[in-house]
Design a protein that fits this description.
Number of domains: 2
Distance between the termini: 44 Å
Oligomer: single chain
Number of strands: 0
Shape: flat
Structural class: mainly alpha
Length: about 80
C-alpha cells in the first residue's frame, strides 16, 4: 500500500485501524488478546448466562445449515 503522505491524501479509517492493530499487536503480543478475550467472555457469561450461548449457537448452526442447503441447490441448478 502506498504511503499516504506521498499521495497527500488522508488515511482511510480502514488503514488507520489496521495500522493501530499492528502497533498494538507488536507492543502487547498474543497474550494480550487472549486475556482481553477471556475477560470479555467471562463478563458476557455472567451477564447473559448459559441460555444466551445456547441460543446464539443454535442461530449459528441454523445459518450454516441454510447456507449449505443453498449451496447444494445452486450446485444442482448448475448441473442441469
Amino acid at each position: 500500500m502506498a504511503n499516504q503522505n506521498i499521495r497527500n491524501q488522508p488515511m482511510t479509517v480502514r488503514e488507520a485501524g489496521r495500522k493501530g492493530g499492528e502497533t498494538t499487536s507488536k507492543k502487547y503480543g498474543p497474550g494480550f488478546y487472549e486475556e482481553i478475550g477471556r475477560k470479555g467472555g467471562q463478563t458476557v457469561s455472567r451477564k447473559y448466562g448459559h441460555e444466551h450461548f445456547e441460543e446464539i449457537g443454535k442461530k449459528g448452526g441454523n445459518k450454516v445449515a441454510r447456507l449449505i442447503e443453498q449451496g447444494k441447490q445452486a450446485e444442482s441448478r448448475g448441473r442441469r
